[in-house]
Amino acid sequence: MTEPRWIDDVLEPVLNTPLHRTLGLRLRVPGDPSAGLELDVATGTATPTDVLHGGLHGLLIDVTAFLCLAAELPRGSHAATISSSISIVSAARLGSTVQTSARIDRLGGGMAFLSGQVESDGQVVATGQLVKIVKRP
């Protein structure tokens, strides 16, 4: 029998956070949080110049990295972002759907170092690195 993971407790609350629901944030693959997230670039998520709002890149990478980390930690864990750096390298245009992915680069000593990216139409539009403080039960 596998040990219960933290993701079992946090997946639905994270996806149902009012902001995430309003934006239309969803799992890339239903039932598989490790596959990343998707978001449509629509009038509510785009700038007046019809590209994804720059602040959303960081939100997308942070939430994706959180779910990636939560899938690896035991139930009762906690994590919070203490540092993040996002680079926007291209535009995601109105009408496109962006996809995110993340990975754990290092986990130990109460810290998690993570990387993530946002893609649109198969092209990377943003990358990011995060540090999260981690408390296990």
TrEMBL record:
It comes from the Bacteria. Keywords: Hydrolase. Residues 51-125 form the Thioesterase domain. It holds the Pfam family 4HBT. InterPro entries: ACOT13, HotDog_dom_sf, Thioestr_dom. The keyword Hydrolase applies. Belongs to the thioesterase PaaI family. This is Thioesterase domain-containing protein. It comes from Aeromicrobium alkaliterrae.
